[in-house]
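go over my protein:
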Amino acid sequence: MGLCWPLWIFFSLLILSTHASAQPKDQANVNGQGIIIRSITVEIRDIFDEPDLGFAYKSINRLKASTVREVVEREMLLEPGAVYNEFLREESERNLRALSFLREVSVVPVFDGDFVDIVVSVQDAWTLFPQIGFSSGGGTKKTQLGLAEVNLLGYGKRLELFYADDDGREKVESVYKDNRFLGSKENLLLGVFERSDGYRSFIDYGRPFRSLGDSSSWSVNADVYDLVGGLFKNGNERFIYRVKHEEAGAGYALSVAEQENVARRLTFGYKHKLDDFTQADIDDYNDVNVDPNDVDQDPDLLADDRRFSGPLVSYQRLESDFISLRYIDKFQRVEDYNLGNDLRLETWIAPTVLDSSANTLIVSMSDSDGYRLGEESFFRHGTELSSRLDEVGFANTTLGTDFKLLHSFGPIFISDVYLGRHTFASSLEMDLSSGLDRDKEFVLGATNGLRGYEDMTFAGTSRLLLNLEERFYVVDDLFRILSLGGAAFVDLGGTSTKAFGNIFTDDFYGDVGFGLRFGFPRSSGGSVMRMDLAFPIRNGPDGSMQWEPRLFISTGAAFTSRLRNERTGEQSASTSLVFVP
């Protein structure tokens, strides 16, 4: 119980700050009453646009294909001749910031009597580079080498080709993404993965919502793979199996704007999903570099086959209330966080007459909200629930919730000594389950929140994780290439296969540490590399000893301010479960 005190401090500060400092959401909308948009001009600046540039910087500018003006113009929700609307200006700015290959975005109105001129300014980021990803020090080694271009020929298309080794599982992957396929309003995403243990191919094509004002959207998708999956214990596989997965679906959504910043959306669709599980054979063990003698061979651990097919309907009520800040999860790059309520409900009916393995009802819901605690601080929380009901009863029921508390302190000085810009970041996640499918589990470890222990050390049917970081950003845009910073952190949590309370009594672990952060502000997305040194507070089942340092190197933030329903991948209610091929 001695390690639990930070949880109570976290909850106490959370409650006090929410009640004492929460401000009502600003619904003000500054529109020009009858003011007509006279013109829209677009300025696309080079990666390096400072005066007196040297030869190297000028050469990089010449090598980079500049973003085509049309790519910027098509994200604008304002047009000449229309009545000026401030909310649409803000949405247009967010649309442009969502494009990773653009930075320093601004959409500025210049009023002139009954008219307004819109000046759009963006800066290109470097988008063609070797795709190098790696992590080590977590008990597993992951490397990724290849080439990625996220703004192909300046048209905003993404093409990736790379080789990866995920702790012995080799794979060659290719991905193509086009946000405006053939100049249309449709998205296209294609992926083909060839791995040592199998393959995966997927396609997603459709017209997404790009604004709260959009009246409809649609999509069709398919995902097929034949891969080796695993269950974990103490940082190693305890059981492996082969799974063949087939999934295809289509949907059409209608949207009605309740208010300018609130939309209600109703989606009708059809979905087919098949998972076929078999025990691993000797070739499967060789494919993933696992000794059969090191894992359990119990056939009772193998998950039951699943096949669902049928119509689905979903409802979403989405409120737009964004806060835009720098120095939260990245360095100088402005990031947008929606503090508005986002409620989603989905029902999927899968009867045997439509080729399902049993008459099944699958339901899921999520609800998230946020609050401003000041000009540069906010609190967000979200809850997700999903379950499956058939003739036997309820199964694979999961309940997850997460809380994010962020506060930017801005520049900190002691006397005249600059200590950088500081941000306090915290994240609390809890997961519960009942009748969880046997191929799924909640995990923790070096890449899953507890940096002092090996990857996949802790696995169970429930999970608790608290992350606290004091982030500091010391040097910005050094040599116009690199930004430097660091973090001090505390990670606390655990998993259990029994009651959730057992995490506190028997399975509570943690670590403390510090690390360095290296930002690349002029690259696509403003990517960050981190180097953390973590010290376990308690001996771990993976062999980690108390206070024994563990160096962990990876890319991206250890945790972000995004809620789980904002994460990409499969259904959001399953994003925290282990099997992600």
Notes: Residues 101 and 508 are 42 Å apart (CA to CA). Residues 1-30, 568-581 have pLDDT under 50 and may be disordered. The longest helix spans residues 5-21. The chain has two domains: 31-124, 128-574.
